[in-house]
From TrEMBL:
Annotated region (Disordered), positions in chain: 1-23
Keyword list, A-Z: Aminotransferase, Pyridoxal phosphate, Transferase
Protein family per UniProt: Belongs to the trans-sulfuration enzymes family.
InterPro entries from the UniProt entry: Cys/Met-Metab_PyrdxlP-dep_enz, PyrdxlP-dep_Trfase, PyrdxlP-dep_Trfase_major, PyrdxlP-dep_Trfase_small
Transmembrane recorded as keyword: no
Gene3D superfamilies the record matches: Aspartate Aminotransferase, domain 1, Type I PLP-dependent aspartate aminotransferase-like (Major domain)
Cofactor(s) annotated in UniProt: pyridoxal 5'-phosphate
Protein name as annotated: Aminotransferase class V-fold PLP-dependent enzyme
GO molecular function, a single term: transaminase activity
Organism, scientific name: Sedimentitalea xiamensis
């Protein structure tokens, strides 16, 4: 745009339009100019809303936060640069030296690392317990325990946490219950309706859904905690990039359709796999043979999730033959993409464990976790049939 004085560099206004864009504009601006010091005072004092510096907040992040607030049924959430930034904001931003925190023993790998390595370094003590067993969690509670962090459905064995029992336990002992809802998503499960105090998401996974953006989100029931999370986020620079937020919003527009489609296909694929020769077992919470089936129905209702795990006979050799033959599926360590992805815990997420410890978790060499995508269900069944047959022939 030409500037009327000719020599100044920045435009002072944008082209006029009586109509508005349908798509949220991308606002990469790091700074926002105010009219006068008085106007800036009004902003800082909260009398008017205005952006100042994008680490402190920007329109694209606020648009994504508002969408997730509506989905989780809680106002005031904060968008972060990744799911781990959201987990870090909760554990580092709300706890202090001397506090104790309990985590589910099958949390996301990096959350486990934060609990095992980083919190103890800062004098925050941690314990892990099975979130499907309230008595086991109760046994870890100490006078200085402040918070319990769990996932409703665990990765990769798809055990379902006893959220109702844990919520009652947390209430009784005055602990904050934080639920990482990444796997289950607000379409499948709304933790605040079941007694959670804090909800965390990796937007990177199903919510954004296209494996092209990394982003997280956290929201608390207590507005004072939301303010602490927001300030921690701004101070430590966990703020997201506007472009990532813009992409995430684009993905989230189709999230519900994608989730419903992927979840239906996952249910069909689970039944299909269970009938294939060479498949030792199938884990899907909505199947009646799942050990936590009743709890899954109570928490997830009719929708379930898009994740299916299964175990092939034949050990590592069969696992290698399977991924080689699984034409068109990505053998890649993520979940929630539009395309189906396979992960093999023994060679990736759980490779640091001894074979004995993996065995104890049920993660043998033939174990795969499938994140079901948007492919046609019949095509997907055929690809799995062929790949399992190839694995058994090899
Ligand atoms: C991926 C994931 C995270 C971390 O999210 P990033 O966006 O990768 O940082 C946290 N929790 C769960 C359950 C996840 O699957």
């Amino acid at each position: 745009m030409r500037n009327s004085k000719g020599s100044l560099i920045r435009p002072t206004s944008l082209p006029e339009s009586a109509s508005r864009p349908v798509v949220t504009p991308l606002s990469p601006s790091v700074v926002y100019a105010s009219e006068t010091p008085d106007a800036l005072d009004a902003q800082y004092e909260g009398r008017v809303h205005g952006y100042t510096y994008s680490r402190e907040g920007h329109p694209n992040a606020d648009v994504v936060a508002a969408r997730l607030d509506a989905m989780e049924g809680m106002p005031g959430g904060v968008v972060t640069a990744s799911g781990m930034a959201a987990v870090s904001a909760v554990l580092l931003g709300l706890l202090k030296t001397g506090d104790h925190v309990i985590g589910g023993k099958q949390l996301y790998g990096r959350s486990l690392r934060l609990m095992a390595e980083d919190l103890p370094r800062l004098g925050i003590r941690t314990s892990l317990a099975d979130p499907g067993n309230v008595d086991a969690v109760r046994a870890e509670i100490r006078p200085d325990t402040r918070l319990l962090l769990v996932e409703a459905v665990s990765n990769p064995t798809l055990n379902v946490a006893d959220i109702h029992g844990l919520a009652a336990l947390c209430k009784e002992h005055g602990l904050l219950l934080a639920v990482d809802n990444t796997f289950t998503t607000p379409r499948g499960f709304r933790p605040f309706d079941h007694g959670a105090d804090i909800v965390i998401h990796s937007i990177t996974k199903l919510l954004a859904g296209h494996s092209d953006v990394m982003l997280g989100y956290v929201v608390a029931r207590d507005p004072a905690l939301n303010e602490r999370l927001r300030v921690f986020n701004v101070t430590t620079g966990l703020t997201p990039s506007p472009f990532d937020c813009w992409l995430a919003e684009r993905g989230m527009l189709s999230f519900e359709l994608r989730f419903d489609r992927a979840q239906q296909t996952a249910a069909a694929l689970a039944d299909h796999l269970a009938a294939l020769p060479g498949v030792a077992r199938v884990i899907y919470p909505m199947r009646t043979d799942h050990p936590d089936h009743d709890r899954a129905v109570a928490l997830l209702g009719a929708r379930g999730c898009n994740m299916v795990s299964f175990e092939l006979n034949g050990g590592r050799a069969a696992a290698n033959a399977f991924t080689r033959a699984a034409d068109g599926l990505s053998f890649a360590p993520t979940l929630g993409d539009v395309g189906t992805t396979l992960s093999h815990p023994a060679s990736s997420s759980h490779r640091a464990l001894t074979p004995e410890n993996r065995e104890a978790l049920g993660l043998r060499e033939g174990f795969f976790r499938v994140s079901v995508g948007l492919e046609d269900a019949d095509t997907l069944k055929r690809v799995f049939s062929d790949a399992v047959a190839a694995a058994m022939a090899g």
